[in-house]
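User
Here is a favour to ask of a fellow structure person. I am asking you to supply a protein in sequence and structure-token form. Please set it down just below, with no commentary around it:

Assistant
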Amino acid sequence: MMKLILPVLSALALVACGSGSDAVASPTNLVSLPASQLSWTELPNSGGVKYANVQGDLAGHGNYEAFVLFPNGLNNPFHVHTQDLPTVVLKGTFYAIVDGKRIEYPAGSYYNLPANMPHFSGCETGDDCLLFQYQRDHFDLVPTTPEAGGASSANLVSFPAKDLKWTELPGSGGVKYANVQGDLAGHGKYDAFVIFPNGLNNPFHVHTQDLPTVVLKGTFYAIIDGKRIDYPPGSYYNLPANLQHFSGCATGDDCLLFQYQSDHFDLVPVKQ
């Protein structure tokens, strides 16, 4: 039997059932990319690195969000990026060597490399590495040497999966979150992992901010305009603000999600 949940979380500024926003968004603005629908392109002269854009263009200019498939055993000698590079690891073990120290990032990890910080990086032998990265401006990779200097590693945001700190949302039926930047349960911008128990559901509701989400584990789903969309691992969606939907985690594995918003998270119940 499915478990239904509408979290009553004062910290997330939830409102009483039926008092949702009067402005209802159209599903035409939904960005919906189950893993099977991603379109992959190989980066020239990259040794087999491929990317799949979900918004914008990793190989173009301006904001973008994209999955990246990095072959196991491949590495990038010392280099910098001229923009901060936040990244989520979905599969394989990626690593970075920073200030002579090697940091391993297995599946379920997060890092944000500061602009102009020299580092050496690659994917361990074994599974290919599936990454998700998102930047405010274009992606680049500029070769350098350790001796050349650059930005300090003091601003590196580094969360191997084992270092995440999990907090259960009160009254949520077991939903947990782990912040990596900002605070999902607070105000303002945040980036966070979320564990959503399998079989748990949120009846019809809206979010008052766009909600981009990456699925790392389990199968999350959304029902929009009477149609159910399944999002297995390696999927991405961006729910427009005030889009009415029903969502949950299918039975089987718990769902591990990564979500990030430019303002606070909320969930506003609506009547059908």
About this structure: The chain is about 0% helix and 45% strand. Residues 165-269 form a domain with the Jelly Rolls fold (CATH 2.60.120.10). Residues 1-21 have pLDDT under 50 and may be disordered.
